[in-house]
Amino acid sequence: APRIVRSLRRKEARVTELAPEYADGYRAAVDAAERAQPGDRELVCSHGDFSPRNVLSGRTRYALIDWDRLKPADPARDVAHYGAWCWLRRLHADGRRDWSALERFVAAYESLRPGAALWERLDYHLGAALLRMVASRVELWREESYLIPQLIEEAACRVR
Question: What is the DSSP string of 1-44?
Fold first, then answer.
C-alpha cells in the first residue's frame, strides 16, 4: 500500500501539471487513499495491469500479455484493476456505473481461493485503480477526459 500511494503521488504531480482543473479532487482522493492504507494480507504474483485488453484469446487457449508491471502484491490489486477497467468501459459506453463484472470476478476468485477475503481490501485497491485511470486519461487518452470527474468521485468514495 505505501508503494501505491507513492505512485499516486507521482501521478498527482503530472495531473496538476497537465490538467490543473482536476488537481484538487485528485489530491483529496490520494490523501484519502493514504489515510486508508490497508495492511497486505498476503502477497502474490501480480500482473499490475490486469484487464480484458491484456488477455488474448485463441481457438484453444488464452494468453496474458503486457507483463511490465509484474510484482508481488495483494491479490486484491489485480482483481480491483480488472473490475475498475470493466466499470470504466461501461461508463464510457452508456454512462452507467455498473460493478457487476467485478462482483462476478470476485465470486469466481473466492470460489477458487476461499480464504482470500478480497472484500476487506478491495475498496482501497479500487480507489487506487480508478486514480491510475485518471492519470491515464490526463496523459494518454484526453478524448476520455470527460470521464475524469466521475472517476475521481468514485475513487474518493472507495478509499474512504
Answer: -HHHHHHHHHHHHHHHHH-GGGHHHHHHHHHHHHHTPPPPS--E
H or E element at residue 72: strand 71-73
Contact 29, 156 (CB under 8 A): yes
Tens-level pLDDT at each residue, the chain (160 residues): 899 999 999 999 999 999 999 999 999 999 999 999 998 778 999 999 999 999 999 999 999 999 999 999 999 999 999 999 999 999 999 999 999 999 999 999 999 999 888 998 999 999 999 999 999 999 999 999 999 999 999 999 999 8
**Residues whose CB is less than 8 angstroms from the CB of residue 130 and which lie 6 or more positions away in sequence, other chains included:** 84, 88, 151, 152, 154, 155, 158
